[in-house]
Design brief:
Elements: H1 2-20, H2 28-41, H3 63-76, E1 81-87, E2 92-97, E3 100-103, E4 110-111, H4 141-151, H5 153-157, H6 165-171, H7 176-180, E5 183-188, E6 191-196, H8 200-214, H9 218-225, E7 227-231, E8 252-257, H10 267-271, H11 290-298, E9 301-303, E10 314-317, H12 319-326
Antiparallel strand pairs: 1-2, 2-3, 3-4, 5-6, 7-8, 8-10, 9-10
Helix pairs in contact: 3-12, 8-9, 8-11
């Protein structure tokens, strides 16, 4: 009787495997991980109608810019952005984030009752994330002079700030008390770090891919082995400006390499004694492996090493910038 019952069970299992496939027996965690990877792939797809658009030449306050940029936000935050479009009543583009409506307001993305204050604020998207690292050996004198001007502390202090209401709608963090209800402690590549709860999942995906690649890539394994610490949430303003750092939203991490005090990792620290910091050759700057940078980008993080004012230890969660990058 026992043998007969066992045979029936085995036959039933075999039938189930043939009918539904092995995927039916995958653990919920594995299926969830695969879903997350599919979600991350959306960052570089579904932008074909904007392909070939030269955003560099765009008037960033224009209606066309509104369509492209609001589409990027909708695509980057599908669970938070429910709709965007053009409002005949307001004669402006709008976007709805977590139930709150904002107007384009010439690129400032403001609450409806503040749209008339556009001149008081900075554009929400005020740069396009580069596809490549800018090599200083190719800099013109004009560009060098521009970098020096825009990195001067008095110039930076004079710049307008962002209106925080839109980001508050995305991340619930207009005040420190509100924001810290969403800060959680986690680990990344073996180091403890505090972050906004919304980026724990994409960062876990980054770690999984880095560890998988490290098995066959000695450069990546060396990068992991030489991490001294990982810094995340820190309520603070950007140096020389009244804007809040992405660290103050818990949306950025700094990966500190061992012996970082002896490395060129951040333009601002170097600029304190070297006025030509922007001309430091790439091979004299500490950098994570490009394969690691690409993994971060795949999951919505931009790397500060591609900025002209470079911050090579810094990654921040800006999936909308990567959607925009894929559209031009």
């Amino acid at each position: 009787m026992t043998k007969l019952l066992l045979c029936r069970v085995l036959l039933l299992v075999s039938f189930f495997l043939l009918t539904f496939g092995l995927a039916a027996f995958q653990s919920p965690a594995k299926l969830h991980t695969e879903d997350m990877f599919k979600k991350s792939e959306r960052l570089t797809t579904e932008t074909s109608r904007f392909k070939g658009t030269d955003l560099e030449t765009f008037d960033m306050e224009s209606s066309r810019a509104a369509e492209i940029i609001l589409h990027a936000f909708k695509h980057a935050y599908p669970a938070k952005i429910s709709d965007y479009g053009y409002s005949e009543k307001a004669q402006d583009w709008f976007i709805i984030a977590n139930g709150k409506k904002f107007l384009w307001a010439r690129g400032r993305i403001l609450p409806e009752n503040q749209a008339h204050e556009a001149d008081d604020w900075r554009h929400y998207i005020d740069y396009l994330y580069p596809k490549e690292i800018s090599d200083p050996k190719n800099f013109t004198q004009e560009l060098i002079d521009e970098i020096k001007k825009t990195s001067d502390s008095s110039y930076r202090a004079s710049q307008k700030t962002y209106n925080l209401d839109f980001y508050d709608a995305l991340y619930d963090g207009k005040t420190r008390g509100e924001l810290e209800t969403h800060i959680v402690s986690t680990s990344f590549l073996g180091k403890k770090v505090n972050l906004h709860e919304d980026i724990v999942e994409p960062l876990a995906m980054v770690e999984q891919m880095i560890r998988e690649e490290a098995r066959s890539n000695p450069e990546i394994q060396e990068f992991v082995d030489k991490i001294s610490s990982v810094e995340g949430y820190n309520w603070r303003e950007i140096r020389d400006r009244q804007d809040r750092s992405f660290h103050s939203w818990g949306l950025a991490i700094d990966i500190m390499p061992k012996g970082w005090q002896q490395k060129n990792i951040y333009w601002s620290w170097l600029s304190e004694w070297n006025p030509d910091w922007m001309l430091i050759p790439l091979d004299r700057r500490w950098m994570p492996p490009m394969a690691v940078v690409e993994i971060f980008e795949k999951h919505g993080f931009v790397w500060g090493g591609k900025w002209l004012q470079w911050d090579n230890i810094h990654f921040e969660y800006r999936p909308e910038l990567l959607v925009l990058q894929s559209s031009h």
